[in-house]
Amino acid sequence: xxxxxxxxxxxxxxxxxxxxxxxxxxxxxxxxxxxxxxxxxxxxxxxxxxxxxxxxxxxxxxxxxxxxxxxxxxxxxxxxxxxxxxxxxxxxxxxxxxxxxxxxxxxxxxxxxxxxxxxxxxxxxxxxxxxxxxxxxxxxxxxxxxxxxxxxxxxxxxxxxxxxxxxxxxxxxxxxxxxxxxxxxxxxxxxxxxxxxxxxxxxx
Length: 204
What we know:
This protein is an alpha/beta fold. It has helices at residues 15-23, 48-52, 71-82, 94-97, 103-106, 109-115, 123-126, 128-134, 152-155, 170-184, 191-199, and strands at residues 8-9, 32-35, 38-41, 61-65, 140-143, 162-166. It has 11 helices and 6 strands. The longest helix is centred in the last third of the chain and has 15 residues, at 170-184. GO terms for molecular function: sulfotransferase activity. Keywords: Transferase. Residues 58-199 form the Sulfotransferase domain.
């Protein structure tokens, strides 16, 4: 029987928790946990074990990166190369062709529905794990998960699936992620606090 992930709630009375639970929250995301050394939204607990046990196909292609590292550029290049420069096919929106595994756990979508009964979004956004799992064509999958939280078959190299890792100058990634988080409302503090959190490896 595979070992289940163990979670530690990050309390607000710690330095890390004070920053996360006051500056990195909005009405759709509350609370954080630490798992395998990584900080994740509390909602990750619903998906962590399922991701670990996810079935991996030999022709899967994963693009993995830290947030704001140039992942979108890499996704487009990888998809076009793998599909013989099919520019017509590339007119389909990128998240549909190259879904992000992480969307399911980033936010509490139940709260979104409570806030707006007319709220709707495509399955590749609202139910990204299910969407990825049920794709019946070659899968191209984006994720910002650290290696230790990827599916176990990727971690133990028991598959021929490919991982393409994208990295960027950390200084540029930090500034870009700060500005992005300000725009999306995921972070409400100043840059100095964000930068210190980045350097201390406090991340989603």
